Amino acid sequence: MVAGLLFVAFAFFAVGQAAVKRNEAQTAADAAALAAAQETRDELADLWVLAVLDPTKWQDIFDGDGGSNRCERAVELAAMNDATAQCSPDGPLSYRVEVATNKPIGESVVPGTAGRLAHAEAVAVIEPLCDPPGQIPPGNGLPTLNCDDDVDWVLDPADLTDLPAPEDLFDVHLADG
Predict the structure, then answer these.
(1) H or E stretch including 77?
(2) Domain extents in the chain
């Protein structure tokens, strides 16, 4: 009877060990995907600032054109979380990251767990928060940039000191699974 109870206790411990490793892998995947997406978001925001005087380019930027592949940042973040990553852009405004922990689940009473690594996947999405202008005013004027939550950026070409930050232009979040 005592041996049976000990086996059950060790089995629960093994399940707990596996769950902890799985959570570590998921944390690494989430952080890696978000890091790549945030780097791209910042790059797109910089491109928007460079093109602020040419509103005909805004739509392309909000569609993700001009952003480069930032998967190297995902690999760096996974390594910081003791995991290895495979990353690929999933369209111009999304990254898919698959990770494996560097350390196995460990020895337990459950056969086959000693050398198994935990695996997880995450997808991060860059969502434009602003609508490109419908009408471009004649002359040198700039259109109002209409963003979510009824935030309107009135842009003055003669005074471009108060421009939206990257997080005002794009949201970065994990995709629902």
Answers:
(1) helix 71-80
(2) 2-174
